[in-house]
Amino acid sequence: MISPVFGRLLRRRRRSTVAIVTGLILFSLYMCATRFSAMEDMARDQFNYQIDPSSEKAGMTSHNENDYFQKPIVLPPMSYGTNARPSFKELTTFIADLPARHVPFFSDSGNAVKSTAKRLVIVGDVHGQLHTLQKLLKKVGFDNKNGDHLILTGDLITKGPDSPGVVQLAMDLEASAVRGNHEDRALLLYASDNNNTYAKDEIEAEVEHSLKVARSLSEDQRAWLSALPVILRIGRIPGSVNSPAPWNAGDILVAHGGLVPSVPIHKQDPWGVMNMRSLKYPVDENFRRTVKESMEKAAKDKADNENKIIEEENKRIEEGTHEDKEKTKQEPRKKVDAVRITDEMVEDEMERLRAEAPKETDVNEDYHLAVPNDARDGEPWSHAWNRVQNAIKHEQERSVVIYGHDAKAGLQVDLSVDIFAKPGNQPPLDINKNKDKQPPIVDDADDDGLQDEEITNFAKTREKKTKKIGKGIRYAFGLDSGAGKGKKLTALVIETSSAPGGGIVVHHSVETVKVVS
Hints:
Blueprint: H1 4-45, E1 73-74, E2 93-97, E3 105-109, E4 112-117, E5 119-123, H2 130-139, E6 149-152, H3 163-172, E7 176-177, H4 181-195, H5 205-216, H6 219-226, E8 231-233, E9 251-255, H7 270-275, E10 278-280, H8 282-319, H9 343-356, E11 371-373, E12 379-380, H10 381-391, E13 399-403, E14 416-419, H11 452-464, E15 470-473, E16 476-478, E17 488-498, E18 504-514
Parallel strand pairs: 2-8, 5-6, 6-7, 9-13, 13-16
Antiparallel strand pairs: 1-2, 3-4, 5-17, 8-9, 10-11, 10-12, 14-15, 17-18
Helix pairs in contact: 4-5, 8-9
């Protein structure tokens, strides 16, 4: 029996415990609320939402058929597709539309067809090679006073000898451009340098070079680079509906790194757009891991069962009780190892399961989920883009992307491309199940430590697994031809001409020059 005094002590202790727990809960809720509020304020402070819509020099004025001057789309403070992500400090413009006056356009004037804009000259990664850029523009006969417009695919700066000169020339020519990963790094380093927010005694050589380049730029040049969008939307070229593919597409886009197919551009990840080289498919990886584990377990079970038979047989042989008298004279059998499950065996099994599985099962669902990757251990994003665009029934609903960034893959401009579903880290596509190998590997890297041998082995593995080849039209044009490594600089020139039966035809040409020593 508990004494009255001890009972009162227990009740007081219970009340004290309840009060303490209640206080802790209320304090936690308060801290969460204030923390979320602070995060929201911080995200808001990191963005300059008020962008001058007349900033046409950075290609930041929009256009469509009804409204040529809309405000650019600013980057949402907390967005990563449909998932929350930290905001990008110093990144003010995510998507901008090319001013309508720069888009090649024809209008009928009586029986005459006249152009109000001449050509779009889109140049790959310049990387500080001013004289080479001037040489290339001279080769294509660039004339911005007569309707030509220059667009740069990012990475104007670093590596080469004259980054300020390249930026100034772009500004003088009223060029448009997108923000590349090198601009992004240099600008962020410069901002951090001013705020003393990085460890100066631990700077890597490449980071130090980027900071040095950022410091060499004038204030106006840094402001111009800071205002560049991550994605530049050229849109549909008016009257192009009767042009041959891909230039009859509903949209033409410029991005430095790449885009994830089937994801709306306003939901793309800014980091991925500036940095991606390949795509990883989590659903596909989980499926592959499950299949491999299942096959390895089946192989182990088979070996275990066989070894049990061998063990029992050897026991009877040793005891002389084996029913087959001839076997009693033989040496005991050795145990067997489980069959090694190779990647090719896993791929074949995955293909079999997908072919046999009903379309409504998990095996054939959710393969639109792709994660941008700056390495090459996934499917090259441009291959996925070409495959997906070719699978869209109506050509006018497809989109062209013109990009830079990937000097290792080399120039990617041939109109005819192989459409495939890459063995390995890639989902199936019901519309097109053909497979193909990787384009030629060019030793022209901008891959931050990636080894050539690793890339070559990856390509050989894919080529070995190639089964079928299907041809399609290119919708992803890669223009980085290695200027940053002292090799070549390339321009894609888009122009229009009158069609024999009336209307217009959109076509393109490619010009390349060697880097000036």
